[in-house]
C-alpha cells in the first residue's frame, strides 16, 4: 500500500495521464461500444472447439445418439457469442459510432455469424484432412486423440482456419485476435489472410511465421522456425507502406520445408514437390521437384590430449 507521501503524489500523476489523452494520437479511443475483448474471443474459441471436436472438448459425454442434442446447445451459445463479438468489431469502424446503437452493424453481425456457422461442416472436413496429414507425417503420433488434444501445430491450424473464414467474410479485428491468441499459446503465427490448402501439417511448430499474402498449396509440411515472409515493403511517393499487394511467397503442393528455413518475397514461388532444407535463405523462385540445401560444413576434429581428457577439459 502507498504511504501518505505517495498518496499525495497520485492525484498529480492521474492528472498527467488524463492530460495525455487530450492529444490526438492513435492510442486514444473514445467510443461507447466496446471492442472485442481477449477474454471473450478466447471463450468463443473454446466454444468453437467444442462444436468442431465434439467429445474432445466440452463438458458432455458424447455418443452418436446424443450428439445432436448437445451440439444444439453449443451451436446456439456459439451463435450468441459470435454475433456479439462480430457486432463489436463492425462497430469500431462504423461511421455512426456516436450513436448508442447501430441496427446496420447488428444486421451485418447476424448475417456474418450465420454465414460462418454454415461453413462449419466444410471446416470440419478440412480439419479432418489436417489431422490425417499429422498422423501420416509424424511417426511419433500415437493416436488421433493425441493429435487433436495436444499437438500445438494442429491447434494453431485449427484457430487459423477459423480466423481465415471470418477474415474471408470481412469481419475485422476478431480474426487477428484469434491468431494472435494462437501465437501466444503455440508459438505459431499465421496471419488470417493467408491462404492454405488441404492436408496442412506443422511439426513441432514453435517459431513458424506465415505472412498475410502467403499462398500455401495442399499436402505441405512445415517444421519449427520456418518463416514465410516479406522481402521488402513497397512504398508510395510519400514514403508510406503500400497495403494490399502480394508480399509473401507462394508454396505449391507437396512441398516440405525444414526447420529454420526463411522464404521471402511476393514473387517467390516454391515449385510443387520441392524440399527446402533447414536454415536456408530463399528469395528467388525454385522449380518443381527441387531440393535446396546449404553446402555441407567442413568438420574439424581434434584429438584432445590424454592429460586434458583425464582433467575433464
How many discrete domains? 2
Mean pLDDT, all residues:
88
Q: How would you sum up the global shape? A: globular
Strand order of the largest sheet: 1-4-7-10-13
Reported CATH architecture of the largest domain: Orthogonal Bundle
Instruction: Report the CATH C-level class of the largest domain.
Output: Mainly Alpha
Give me the secondary-structure category.
alpha/beta
List the topology elements.
Layout: H1 4-20, H2 38-52, H3 67-91, H4 103-118, H5 120-137, H6 144-150, H7 152-168, H8 174-186, E1 189-190, E2 195-196, E3 201-202, E4 209-210, E5 215-216, E6 221-222, E7 227-229, E8 250-251, E9 256-257, E10 262-264, E11 269-270, E12 275-276, E13 281-282, E14 291-292, H9 306-311
Parallel strand pairs: 1-4, 2-5, 3-6, 4-7, 5-8, 6-9, 7-10, 8-11, 9-12, 10-13, 12-14
Give an account of the 3D structure.
This protein is α/β, with parallel strands linked by helices and 313 residues long. It has two domains: 31-190, serine acetyltransferase, domain 1; 194-313, Hexapeptide repeat proteins (UDP N-Acetylglucosamine Acyltransferase, domain 1). It has nine helices and 14 strands. The chain has helices at 4-20, 38-52, 67-91, 103-118, 120-137, 144-150, 152-168, 174-186, 306-311; strands at residues 189-190, 195-196, 201-202, 209-210, 215-216, 221-222, 227-229, 250-251, 256-257, 262-264, 269-270, 275-276, 281-282, 291-292. The strands form three sheets. A five-stranded parallel sheet has the order 1-4-7-10-13. Strands 3-6-9-12-14 form a five-stranded parallel sheet.
Amino acid at each position: 500500500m502507498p504511504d501518505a507521501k505517495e498518496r499525495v503524489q497520485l492525484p498529480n500523476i492521474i492528472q498527467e495521464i488524463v492530460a495525455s489523452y487530450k492529444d490526438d494520437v492513435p492510442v486514444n479511443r473514445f467510443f461507447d461500444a466496446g471492442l472485442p475483448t481477449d477474454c471473450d474471443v478466447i471463450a468463443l474459441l473454446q466454444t468453437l472447439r467444442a462444436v468442431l471436436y465434439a467429445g474432445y472438448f466440452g463438458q458432455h459425454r458424447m455418443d452418436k445418439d446424443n450428439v445432436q442434442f448437445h451440439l444444439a446447445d453449443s451451436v446456439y451459445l456459439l451463435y450468441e457469442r459470435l454475433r456479439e463479438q462480430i457486432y463489436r468489431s463492425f462497430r469500431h469502424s462504423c461511421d455512426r459510432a456516436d450513436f448508442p446503437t447501430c441496427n446496420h452493424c447488428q444486421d451485418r453481425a447476424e448475417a456474418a455469424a450465420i454465414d460462418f456457422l454454415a461453413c462449419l461442416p466444410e471446416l470440419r472436413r478440412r480439419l479432418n484432412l489436417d489431422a490425417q496429414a499429422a498422423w501420416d507425417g509424424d511417426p511419433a503420433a500415437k493416436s488421433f486423440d493425441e493429435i487433436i488434444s495436444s499437438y500445438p501445430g494442429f491447434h494453431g491450424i485449427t484457430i487459423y482456419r477459423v480466423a481465415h473464414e471470418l477474415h474471408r467474410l470481412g469481419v475485422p479485428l476478431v480474426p487477428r485476435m484469434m491468431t494472435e491468441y494462437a501465437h501466444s499459446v503455440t508459438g505459431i503465427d499465421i496471419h488470417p489472410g493467408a491462404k492454405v490448402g488441404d492436408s496442412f501439417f506443422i511439426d513441432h511448430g514453435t517459431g513458424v511465421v506465415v505472412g498475410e499474402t502467403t499462398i500455401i498449396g495442399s499436402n505441405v509440411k512445415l517444421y519449427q522456425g520456418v518463416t514465410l515472409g516479406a522481402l521488402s515493403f513497397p512504398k508510395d511517393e510519400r514514403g508510406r507502406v503500400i497495403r494490399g499487394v502480394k508480399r509473401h511467397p507462394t508454396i505449391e503442393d507437396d512441398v516440405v520445408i525444414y526447420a529454420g528455413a526463411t522464404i521471402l518475397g511476393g514473387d517467390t514461388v516454391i515449385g510443387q514437390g520441392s524440399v527446402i532444407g533447414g536454415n536456408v535463405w530463399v528469395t528467388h523462385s525454385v522449380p518443381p521437384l527441387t531440393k535446396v540445401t546449404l553446402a555441407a560444413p567442413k568438420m574439424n576434429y581434434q584429438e584432445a590430449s590424454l592429460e586434458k581428457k583425464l582433467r575433464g577439459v
